[in-house]
């Protein structure tokens, strides 16, 4: 018997293997055959899945099916909510108690007016109210999954229990063989096997023997299954990989002022061995490596009240803002080369620096009794000097603190690890991330984290005497370099013994009692009477790419050196008085100079320190001023040179003027900054001198050293009004001249008149590419606003309206592309620059008034009727854009002369052809927009405004653009797409068109432009996917996001046709593609982004009845039978159509049909589907299901039933696909091949391998799964090429397990099928 049974088993096994192989070959052959594809495409309309069906006319259906037709909760599935779009005015955060505004309120300079409009207007945010339900902003991530799993009870399934029971039985057998009765204690599990009498009984099951009707048992089971169920079951499944979520995006950061790492320095006390006179201190940061001063000066006064009293006659009023003893310094680029330099000054007295420092270096506090008489004499001299020369200072001593020693020696406090999770997530602003990058540049810089070190209190004891001939910054940098490596240079300097006690610590995030660089009170500031802390203005060592968001207009003047060696007369103790003059009269000196310490807040003049008996002194002084809002040609800086008489003499004045020079601040519309070498006049300047420079040889004037430049001075501006870039300044100046129509206007050597204004403006716009990028970024908002204004409101020149659309579009495209190339670290995963994205999201708005009418802040109305006219559009439109009416496209291209078969092919031929001839189009015509004759005359009898729509002009200019401009626009397509989207949205609000039908919202010409643009970009994607991989990926996602946005604004049927056009372009290229997997991946990403729309369910018309009579969508009343079986449903063709990707299904559920079609095609056995494509397709479907499952809008069972119908074709897709899938219960070489197929798609042999388990399942034999769980995840060893489980298991687990199938499709139980009757089918599928 044993031999016979063995032979039978061998014979049967051999037959089964043979049958399995034949079945497998037949299934694979049939599955990939065109006949089966046609069958899957639909029995009545044999359209294969590779072709996209014509979508439903969405607007027509919605207009004929009012939401009220559907009962109850189903109304929300018919149309978008009325409040889908919302316009929000968000208040800008003001960090100070007083708004940072200029004191002048009337007749503001146009630069200041525009800057204030940018800095004070509220943020204008237009958003889709329900977009947070989309997977764009609420993705199914690991973090979200952990939140869902909190408090859940572990689920145990039948298959798990069977496997566990069998394993337990094996353990019991082993114990029975190894354990005897005498060795086991009574009452234990092992003893109960042999001692049943004394074992404890199990709990009784009272109803186990009761007779219960099948219906009652089903009801009980149904109720038991519904108890304790999780509402978001699919969301509990492991989330997809982060890189698969291509639809992921985040709201841009709110624009804010740049801020580096901040340290706080508190000056506690300053003591010398002797106290005889007041001493004043200055703090500033210097970067030795960059040789740059990286902060403004902070002045402090630690003198006793007795010493301060000596200067009371010179400072009758002391402002509390000048009493600060602590300062906050900002450091954008931390470095090991940064020093905190401390300089000390004293009141001017007779004698050079060495003589005045001598008492401090030789006298000790312990010797005070010994030198009492000498000290009294010194105090008396100091008192006399303070009384007579109290307004003048002289250099005294200096020292420096190497900040890296503070950070490294004290040790870091909670210093962040560069590889920490927070760093990997790339959170924070661009400047924060850039700072972190600089922290890792070298070993030294890695320790320069000035934000987290432990506070330190230092006592500085060694000060170096100032050298009268070595006061320049260049000398200081040499000294600082020597401080890093102590050398003989510093040893030669005699130290001044003193004790300066300071505290250095990381600055708190919100310091109290802090003043801004403009002396505004920074929040929080609880009490205005408390001694303040000053926020010190930073001068970053390198460029900072952050736009200005607040008004700032400061000027810094640095006198550097003076050469009066050839000046005749007594000129030795020289002080330079600096004044900011509004005119030439002495009374017109403005009180705009910031005070130092223990003085008035603002003053009319400031003096440099005096170097005793030096005719060629060097200076280190910094003079800070606030620039008036209204600058004129008469505003200038006046420098007056005085000889100071240190020794009182009869008939000798204290000050003797010995020279004059000046700097006009406004010239040719620009604020003059930079380094100047100025000649000095011996006499007072003549009348009207302020409009000229001192370089002009004025008649009758005497000059020092024959009119040579003898005074060197540097002027810097920290301004959010004046760009200080010649290209930007010229552009803004011409725009303001045009707005105010102030012709003629002199711009350097050119006289701007009406005749040459257009040419000059276009040349200036083209020259913007030469502007410094950091300046363009700092004034990004104003620059883009002006370019947009020139498009929306074409300027009027000599009664003619000139269209500058092309020039503005080109300038914008080149600027945006330049930012992308140079700021690669400031981009998100889709290549979008965060600065530009934040501008569009928060700042951009359509101009609603003519430029010459200054906009009034805070007044916005959205119900006013507005009339628009677009220039040169009706009569001079390119024939290539008349899509439906074009017969012959070009006379020079014979390939385009034939009549296209369809509009899609027509667009493809027009735009997709690289050799298109535009010579007969208006594009190259002088009358085209931007052409030399592109003008329209304003009708004097017309009262309507002539205004262009930004989105229309952008679309048109993009379509007709060529060469470098078109390439630049393609590189940053996302920017123009988002700009157009917000322009369209804002336009709908401004014109109150949100309530009208979508087909009436935008004119046909704009719709044509959008169609041509989408088709052109689709052609670029299809033709350049193998050459410009990075560009095509960005372009593909940008186009998908754009169409996603258009679904909320335009005719949705039109957008569906754009999607269909894209699909046709890609499909045409697939036939000849060398690497079709890349194109398939692009198309999968495209449809995934489209499908991430928050109203994806509504867009698929889940309640529609558009199917033809042969396959109608079943109604609720016709499918309530509880006894219908799957076989009877297949016979009913109407219901069967719902379970396949038929033409009616793909027609009425367009997006869902595309997603499921992609899944079906990618999983075909003879297709070139590789592992990463399987993963993409399954991840997309999984993400959608999780999104629906967690969406609170779809909690009603009736609503969920209709949503479930959108996924009915998923069941046959899964079951048909199982025949060629790998066996994931054991190691299979084929899986590694699938995972690596993306690298080599030419090896099809591995797909013929049939595992034993699959063969036995096909042959009808049971699987030997007693020792393993069929749903266990693959081990890491078996998945070497990818992380996470193989994606098809995700599909099986999500759609074939009993619990998941019931959860997703339970709502169709009473509408379509009886799920319970098919549980064995699903169990068998899972077993297979």
UniProtKB/TrEMBL annotation:
InterPro entries: C2_Dock-C (IPR037808), C2_DOCK-type_domain (IPR027007), DOCK (IPR026791), DOCK_C/D_N (IPR021816)
Domain C2 DOCK-type per the UniProt entry, residue ranges: 552-718
GO biological process, one term: small GTPase-mediated signal transduction
Biased segments, Low complexity type: 882-894
Region (Disordered): 23-46, 156-186, 412-433, 882-906, 1229-1249
GO CC aspect terms: cytosol
Basic and acidic residues composition-biased segments: 164-185, 414-433
Top-level taxon of the source organism: Eukaryota
GO molecular function: guanyl-nucleotide exchange factor activity
Sequence similarity: Belongs to the DOCK family.
Listed name of the protein: C2 DOCK-type domain-containing protein
Protein species of origin: Solea senegalensis
Taxonomic path: Eukaryota, Metazoa, Chordata, Craniata, Vertebrata
